[in-house]
Write a structure and sequence with these properties.
By secondary structure, the chain is an all-alpha fold. It contains 14 helices and no strands. It starts with 23 loop residues before the first helix and ends with a helix.
Length: 330
């Protein structure tokens, strides 16, 4: 090896290796920037550690977090040089390594984050691939079709992926039998004292639907929905339903977590204002108010009976779930 190819001493400064000296202002700015990064990293690491403390996440998560800690220590060490600026080349290597470690961390956390995300949804939606909350919101809030706890995954998937409202209405009509059966399974499985008084009426409405008495099924479903909503929300029910003048917004729904939103959002459409005396047009989709205050084939039909029963049974499922959670905590 010749002298020209030998590594230069650290003090040498020629064209082969140039040290970049930072001004005091640059040094201060660099320190401030890296300190902020470390503070953010520490907070983020603490949050992630708390979220993924369960045994299911420890295998992939903890080794990755350990690597992040080592990188943070390296950054701290290299920046604590008593006022002597580190070369930009060294900082570049450190931050590059840091970025690689971060990438590895997120790769390891991917399955854990996916599992956590799926837990936000009720059981019937968790197995749906590529599920987007925006699509769920369209179904439950915009069109008022319940998805909490029912219908079965295949039907829920079809409703979510449908091309539009008319296609979803067609699905309700075509699959009413399987939806009714699933509603029955759900309400019969409700065992809490809070829900028990409503279960026989839900079953009676389902019996009427299965026997072809759709108008009777829908009328009972409408009364059942109103009884459940009033008992659960009390005076606050009016925060979640449109007002007479159309000024009330859906802001109250922002208070809900994802599961609560999916469960209660269909109320917004079910309680749209309808006044016969005002000459309001009879709604074509299930309306609690139109079901209670008018008789018309436009409102009373099998699709609307199915939609109304889905709402009643879905609400009972949610309330029973909450009651079971409270009992477990007691």
């Amino acid at each position: 090896m010749t002298d020209e190819t030998m590594e230069k001493p650290a003090g040498d400064n020629d064209e082969g290796e140039k040290r970049i000296e930072l001004t005091p202002e640059q040094t201060k700015a660099l320190r401030s920037s890296m300190a902020s990064m470390l503070d953010a990293q520490a907070a983020w690491k603490k949050q992630i550690s708390g979220i993924f403390a369960s045994d299911a996440f420890k295998k992939n998560t903890l080794p990755a977090l350990s690597n992040v800690g080592r990188i943070a220590e390296q950054l701290t060490k290299n920046l604590d040089l008593g006022g002597i600026a580190e070369s930009l080349a060294t900082v570049s290597r450190i931050t590059s390594t840091f970025a690689e470690q971060q990438s590895a961390l997120f790769k390891n956390l991917g399955p854990a984050i996916a599992a956590m995300r799926s837990s936000f949804y009720p059981p019937n939606l968790r197995a749906i691939e590529g599920l987007k909350f925006a699509n769920v919101e369209t179904v439950v809030m915009v069109e008022g079709i319940p998805l909490y706890g029912l219908p079965p995954r295949a039907t829920a998937d079809a409703l979510i992926r449908a091309s539009g409202a008319s296609e979803r209405r067609r699905i309700l009509g075509a699959r009413w039998g399987t939806i009714s059966a699933d509603c029955r399974t759900v309400v019969v499985g409700c065992t809490s004292k809070a829900v028990a008084p409503y279960v026989p009426f839900a079953v009676a409405a389902l019996d009427a639907l299965d026997a072809g008495h759709t108008a009777a099924a829908q009328a009972l479903a409408g009364s059942l929905v109103d009884a459940i909503v009033t008992a659960y929300f009390g005076k606050d029910r009016y925060k979640y339903t449109p007002d007479r003048n159309g000024r009330r917004t859906k802001e109250a729904y922002d208070e809900f977590n994802i599961r609560q939103f999916i469960a209660f959002a269909p109320m917004w459409q079910a309680y749209q204002q309808f006044f016969v005396a005002n000459g309001d047009k009879v709604p074509a989709t299930f309306s609690r108010n139109a079901t209670a205050h008018t008789v018309s084939p436009r409102q009373f039909n099998r699709r609307n009976a199915v939609q109304g029963l889905m709402l009643a049974c879905s609400l009972l499922y949610r309330l029973d779930e909450e009651a079971a959670s409270l009992d477990a905590e007691a």
